[in-house]
């Protein structure tokens, strides 16, 4: 038979409708829709960031200095290359009520008269920026986040204080155009004019602030040339450059990585759906036994049989992909207002062709992969066996060509995922994990059948006919144990892994907080204040410990005369500025791992003590030379020792420590960590803020709560993605239950004929469903636990502790889902007339 004949036969069979392919379409459409929806949202956000890069950044380009403002010469150069330059000072401080009765941490944005270059702030009530800053009653004006206004119980016209300067609250700060470039802050924002901070005592040499200079460049300016010129002309001051091409790298990276991870979760859902796709195709082809036999008798070759049904599957695959793409593109549009409101960046959701093409390719490859073996099975069945309705006589494995095609399709699917995700290592690891879970679940399905068959024959079950029949059914031929355990187990495995990761992240913080973390982190302590503050804190009976250290910030510029990033790569210690301190003697609770501390009174060439773990990661050795730019001054020192530094306990941890003479004359402030009883925290914070208004007291407990909340949002997004996998598994379960309805009807008829009441028959169906659900849940707990351990240990770098509560919920969920799916299709078999059913099988 020719290909044209095969096409006509395929077209005529499809004319009979989609009966038997609803599960196929649902599984494929769900997987494609999940990937398309995640990709559409990610692409829309990235497009918005690229389109509004200058607005989000606050200018076409930005030059940033750490803890100092630009010098007159540096500012003059920036003025020479830009049409407009605006200075923005960003720092944390304490906003206090006028009477000192309450205070709260805030992130202050201090701007000049040229701000903003692009966009406009939004105030409530609406007013011009000049009107807001003009204030009233002789006091400068300010705007505050509504959250901070509620926290301090303020209203427009009320007074508050920053440092030693009083302000009047003029309006609530609804939004600022360049807010997305500010990064994560522990306090709600306050907007003021930088000139009004002159008497506050908050901006001085050595205090912790960032000075950002946003540039409006001439039309058509070459950003690469401007960047090169800035970095060359201002190299001595070690400025950090950013431009509108990537105005919000932190947001972009976070969105990109979360989106890629969710796409991998979507692929897991597509893998679960593949089980349903394969089962649906297999069930459809089983119903075509007589048709296939007739075609073979009429001379149809194996290839013709394969082509007929491959064409049908291809058409249905295209239909399923189209349905999935419509849903995946439509969901973000339907929820556009909610998505836009939840994101701090502009996003215009619309049809993005790239993610849709990616999702379609995933769907096509997955459908081909999971339908190949059922199609091969159909073409290899013997005609005589088909007509006798006997065993098919198939070999355990398909032909070598089918095995080769399977390997190629799997490699193409994984390779495509690695290419599109941009993280091949993580993608390959995830693919290996999914494949391992598949094998584990297949083995679990086989083990459940063998165990059920063995247990059904034990003497201990005599007198328990319901349980015995349920086990015999699970272990008997033609049961759906494998598909149930596989489809549900993979979905539950993803949820189990997410649950373990989430609980371990939250648990790590909670475990560390009471025993390790300090109560307060105090910054911006001036050198002439540290002794008095130390006396006040250490004399408080509620304080158990106080650590203090001088604080500077420096940028590592060179290692052994070479640019630091060429030596250390993209390691975090050479990105941005790092904490620098000095000490005459080895500080308490400090352990040297290699080298020696400098002697007291040392006044020779600068020496450096570096964090041991980070030194090992970038290949630093004792005796290496390192250049550090501190407040525009380049200091080159020799690495004399390595220290054990723990950055996980919320205490003080400095990457770099130097001998005091190396930093002599450098303006700086002090920082302190205070360990106090919870009952003493409120009074201590109030007293410190009132006595020294310029210092900033950060509650570590509140900061950890903010981080925990942020992680909770990320975990929620991942959980919602994982739920798609579970929904797909539930669809597969429904398909398996629907496919077995005819067999259960006959079984119920036989049992009722033998005198079994409806309750016994229903209990039989419920027990077999519960057995399979429990098996899937137990395997999911094991697989999810391994995945959670791997992510916690190697990605999050936290200690892993198995969470039994989450595991129990997974097992119970597996039992509940399978019982609901099984019982939903048990009512019709129970209500069928035994006489009619048995007469029809004669």
Automatic annotation (TrEMBL):
Domain ABC3 transporter permease C-terminal: 265-377, 722-834
Keyword Chaperone attributed: no
Principal cellular location given in the protein's record: membrane
Membrane topology category: Multi-pass membrane protein
Entry-linked InterPro entries: ABC3_permease_C, Membrane_comp_ABC_pdt
Cross-referenced Pfam families: FtsX
Keywords (A to Z) from UniProt: Cell membrane, Membrane, Transmembrane, Transmembrane helix
Transmembrane segments: 261-285, 306-339, 359-376, 397-420, 426-448, 717-737, 773-795, 807-827
Compartments where located: Cell membrane
Coiled coil, from the record: none
Protein name: Drug:proton antiporter
Organism per entry: Sinisalibacter aestuarii
The organism's taxonomic lineage, starting at the top: Bacteria, Pseudomonadati, Pseudomonadota, Alphaproteobacteria, Rhodobacterales
